[in-house]
Write a structure and sequence with these properties.
- This protein is mainly α and 190 residues long.
- It folds into two domains: 1-116, Rna Polymerase Sigma Factor, Chain: A (Orthogonal Bundle), CATH 1.10.1740.10; 122-177, Arc Repressor Mutant, subunit A (Orthogonal Bundle).
- It contains nine helices and no strands.
- Helix 1 (4-10) crosses helix 2 (15-37) and helix 7 (146-153) packs across helix 8 (157-175).
């Protein structure tokens, strides 16, 4: 089974590679969006947009050590939800100032989750050993080089790379959908 990174690299020349990545994460991303919007159709739209943005920015996914695309994809979905909350707020405020009465359709994301990461991702991060959690946060959230991570954590760049890799692998395992994915079902049917 190919890693997420291998699928992203192969997507340039293998039409099925990105589809396999989609099959791994689509249900989880949809569930993430659905729980926050309470709207199946809006969650489908947000899921589609998440993968459209992932396709467009696939070359920016830089973890070269069997990294999981899960946190990256959930980050994209979270940013889309944040934008939906902001856009809805701006629209509502402008409509009120102009005394225009309109009906908004689509999702109404719950703002209570905006201040923090998704509870599942927070729990998965919290479950990591402190050194791995720090390394993952420095690499993924702050886009630090392995040399900078090594300096911050008082270890070599190679050790920093290993900590990031192990942390991302643990996150991928914890965030992996529990039910069979479409790819798994397809392989079983073959």
């Amino acid at each position: 089974m190919r890693t997420d990174l291998e699928l992203l690299v192969a997507a340039d020349h293998d039409a099925h590679a990105f589809r396999e990545l989609y099959d791994r994460y689509a249900a989880a991303i949809h569930g993430f969006c659905r729980r926050r919007t309470n709207d199946h159709e809006a969650a489908l739209d947000l899921t589609a947009e998440t993968f459209a943005q992932a396709w467009q920015s696939r070359h920016r996914f830089v973890d070269r050590r069997a990294g999981s695309a899960g946190p990256w994809l959930f980050g994209i979905a979270r940013n889309l939800l944040l934008r939906a909350v902001r856009d809805r707020r701006v629209f509502a405020e402008a409509s009120a100032r102009l005394r225009v009465r309109t009906e908004l359709s689509g999702a109404i994301p719950d703002e209570s989750w905006v201040d923090g990461l998704d509870a599942e991702l927070e729990a998965a991060l919290a479950a990591l050993p402190a050194a791995q959690r720090s390394a993952v946060e420095l690499r993924v959230l702050h886009d630090r080089s392995y040399a900078e991570i090594g300096d911050a954590l008082d270890c070599s760049p190679g050790a920093a790379r290993i900590r990031v890799s192990r942390g991302l692998t643990a996150l991928r395992d914890r965030l992996r959908p529990t039910g069979p994915t479409r790819a798994t079902q397809t392989r079983r049917a073959s």
